[in-house]
Amino acid sequence: MFTFIDTVIIGLTSGAVYSLMAISLVLVWRSTRVINFAQAGQALLSTYIGYSFIGLFDSYWIALFFAIVLGAGVSALIEILFMRTLFKRNTGPIAGVAPIIATLGLLGLIHGLIGIFMGGKEAIIRPPVSNVGYTISGHTLALSPLKLVIVSAVLFLMISLSFIFTKTNIGLALRASAYSPEIARLAGVKVDAIRTLGWALAGAAGAAAGMLQTPNGTGALSPDSLEFSLLLVLGFIAAVIGGLESLVGAVIGGLLLGLVLAFVIMYVSATLPFMTAFLLLLGVLLVRPQGIMGRKVGRRA
Amino acid sequence: MTLIVSDLCVDHGAIRAVDHVSMKIEQGQLAAVIGANGAGKTTLLRALSGLTPTTSGTASWQGHNLLHAKPEKLVRFGVSHVSEGKSVIPELSVEENLNLGALWRRNASEAKETRQRIFETFPRLEERSTQLADTLSGGERQMLAIGRALMAKPQLLLLDEPSLGLAPLVIAQIFQSIRDLTTRMGLTVVLVEQNAMSALEIADVGIVLNLGRVAATNSAQSLIADPQVRAAYLGY
Ligand SMILES: Nc1ncnc2c1ncn2[C@@H]1O[C@H](COP(=O)(O)OP(=O)(O)O)[C@@H](O)[C@H]1O
Ligand SMILES: [Mg+2]
Question: pTM (2 decimals)?
Answer without folding.
Answer: 0.88
